[in-house]
Amino acid sequence: MSNKFCVSITNCKADGDKATVGFVVANAAIGSEKETMVFLSTDGVWAAVKGEYEKVNEGAPFAPLKELVDKFVGAGGKILVCTPCLKKRGIEAEQLIPGATPAGGAALVEFLSDGTSCISY
Question: Which residues partner with 80 through β-bridges?
Fold first, then answer.
């Protein structure tokens, strides 16, 4: 069994609830001592953009997205952000929050190649 866990998030502006719950699960995985990676694609890329992820606050019982993302990164979690999805939205790498790295699908495939579990939001 892999000691890694992946959360794939495809929503943020369109559905902040999915981005929020995705990062709640990512924090639970890293808290369970799993090497955890969040892969952001399509609309989900906004969860790693300065000035955008601060806008998502789904309310109680959830913490604001910024707080969840910062906690995840602070605990050593990795955030990979789909490069073509960034380009489609006109987002430059410099606009990403610290801890978020542009990456293609090959990086996701590599992370999952040993049978790593992945959940999508």
Answer: 39, 101
Q: The domain that contains 114 carries what CATH number? A: 3.40.1260.10
Strand bridging mode 117-120 / 100-103: unpaired
Q: One-letter amino acid identity for 47?
A: A
Backbone angles phi, psi at 6, to 5 degrees: -125, 140
Which two tokens mark 14? 């369109």
For the chain, what is the largest distance between any 2 Cα atoms, rounded to a whole number of angstroms? 39
Quote the tokens at residue 101: 């790295």
Please tell me whether the overall predicted TM-score, pTM, comes out greater than 0.90 for this model. yes
Range of the domain at 43: 4-120
Q: Specify the number of domains making up the chain.
A: 1
Q: What is the pLDDT of residues 56-67, one digit of tens each?
A: 999 999 999 999
Contact call for residues 85 and 41 (beta carbons, < 8 A): yes
